[in-house]
């Protein structure tokens, strides 16, 4: 079946963060917007049909998740991640970030140390700092655009940690960690009894015909593992606030569930529930076509930069729809780079500094948009650099 990802859909005035908050965040709204991580593509037709049908019913009272909801998740993790998940292990949450915060609040105490691998998604920092916990960082090592784990440093830090928040696949550096890297980290967490929160929200979009395999599928880490998954990125349904935390260990699950239940976070969003079930049961052909399209976009950015802007550096992300571009050769401080990209190139990118000190000099491009939109962004960046 053919899906049209080239079609440009105007998202302005739909209350969307990416396009409607530009003036507030970037000071102007005539920008090609490639920041926050949602996509400029309509959701899969089969998801839209399910939602339409539910809307037509007209009654939107409290939700109950039928077995089919949990079976849809089980089918997905089994087919896509090679992981057999039990129904009891699942906690339904309004999002991955809320689940991370729940884990921080229930599995650690104030002043405890929590390990993250920087540069990384900003809410990892706030989940630690907002709750009076202490950040422990294991900076990833940039090996010519390919980020590796500093294993010696990881081993030294994990002993001090009360929780490890892993981002796999990693936002923003685009790594999908290998089985060898995962067992290295997982074994140490097990040895020192440190729970691992594995944020796998980017796991569905994987390139080069590879299959995502997370810590859950490796089976040895059930005692220490909390895995967060969601269809929100892969199917562009983040606005429905529906995610799942998978916690095999009943003791860890109970702790998270107690707070989750007392905050009444289990009720969920009617449309999110329908959309998740539809995404995981009928939208796989759409996802496969999307991955092919995004593969073209990630290669387009890389070849454009290699050809026209060789002073910049970019790698091909192994997963997700985010490119991490090194602008440091322009020799600008972070404020000047932000100002240059916004006001001279007229593109809205995520400044690298947002992802920690080691993001300095970088910017993140979200390439989940029609190719023509991306081409215009690259032309603008190129023109601004060549005429500066
Ligand atoms: C690594 C990562 N985790 C979580 C989220 C957001 O998750 P949610 O909207 O389910 O809270 C994002 C969004 O960009 C992300 O990149």
Instruction: Give the count of helical stretches.
Output: 13
Q: Give the count of structural domains.
A: 2
Strand order of the largest sheet: 2-10-9-8-7-3-4
- Name the CATH homologous superfamily of the largest domain: Type I PLP-dependent aspartate aminotransferase-like (Major domain)
Quote the average pLDDT. 97
Estimate what percentage of residues fall within beta strands: 5-15%
What characterizes the major β-sheet?
A: 7 strands, mixed
Give the names of the bound compounds.
Answer: pyridoxal-5'-phosphate
Please write the CATH class name of the largest domain.
Alpha Beta
Helix content: 40-55%
Please tell me how large the radius of gyration is. 21 Å
Structural class: alpha/beta
Task: Tell me the distance between the termini.
Answer: 45 Å
Uncertain parts: none
Shape designation: globular
CATH architecture term of the largest domain? 3-Layer(aba) Sandwich
Order of helices and strands: HHEHHEHEHEEEHEHEEEHHHEEHEEEH
